[in-house]
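Support request from a user on the community tier.

User writes: "When I paste my structure tokens into the form, the page sometimes reloads and wipes my input. The last time it worked, I copied everything first. Here is what I submitted, just in case something in the input itself triggers the reload:"
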């Protein structure tokens, strides 16, 4: 059977289920647009002979992650991949859900800082609070919300469970209430690495740029984008 230039691999060529790789498949009628449909008798999943819509390609998710980390917006990514924005938003959420949290090791040194951005409109500011491991420069935890004790506590409590050596922060009064004096430090230049990381994040992610109209429209999407950027 000749392969369609605009499609993925035709499953009828190799007779293998794309989900479980079983060869025990049978024909199962036709779809509404007259494409041959198959049924896998092992995993009971249905699939068609070939997909013409680009979102079904196996490399799409990897490119979504790559483009997200390079700072492309939703519409830009959708145009390049030739898929709908609705499909792209669903994929971003699904990809983010599969990314595990980063392991936090004991007796390390951390830096914590906040970044201001918007959700919905510029009358609704929120803060991204995140922690950076000082030696590896790896983000280990983050939280999004108002600049309150509750938002900061999600990150600080995670760090305190790892028995840290030192946690460097700025002089925001909330940190004094959340962190013990034995591990908390506000000395000058203690947050140099995370302050520089703030600049990199704002440069890479269009939605976090200053003086922009590209801010996030939903809390969930902003959280997913950050999860992919930090750990994807």
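"...and here is what came back when it finally went through:"
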């Amino acid at each position: 059977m000749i392969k369609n230039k605009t499609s993925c691999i035709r499953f009828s060529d190799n007779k293998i289920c794309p989900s479980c790789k079983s060869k025990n498949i049978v024909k199962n009628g036709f779809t509404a647009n007259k494409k041959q449909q198959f049924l896998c008798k092992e995993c009971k999943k249905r699939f068609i002979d070939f997909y013409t819509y680009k979102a079904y390609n196996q490399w799409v998710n990897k490119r979504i992650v790559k483009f997200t980390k390079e700072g492309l917006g939703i519409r830009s990514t959708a145009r390049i991949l030739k898929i709908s924005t609705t499909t792209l938003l669903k994929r971003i959420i699904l990809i983010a859900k599969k990314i595990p949290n980063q392991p936090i090791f004991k007796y390390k040194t951390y830096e914590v800082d906040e970044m201001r951005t918007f959700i919905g409109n510029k009358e609704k500011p929120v803060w991204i609070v995140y922690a950076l491991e000082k030696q590896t420069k790896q983000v280990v935890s983050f939280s999004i919300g108002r600049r309150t004790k509750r938002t900061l506590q999600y990150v600080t409590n995670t760090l305190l469970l790892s028995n840290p050596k030192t946690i460097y922060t700025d002089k925001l009064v909330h940190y004094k209430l959340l962190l013990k004096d034995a591990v908390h430090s506000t000395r000058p230049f203690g947050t140099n690495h995370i302050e520089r990381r703030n600049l990199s994040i704002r440069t890479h992610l269009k939605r976090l740029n200053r003086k922009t109209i590209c801010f996030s429209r939903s809390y969930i999407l902003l959280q997913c984008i950050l999860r992919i950027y930090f750990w994807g």
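Agent notes: The reload is a front-end session timeout and is unrelated to the input. The chain is about 35% helix and 20% strand. The longest strand covers residues 121-133. Escalated to web team.
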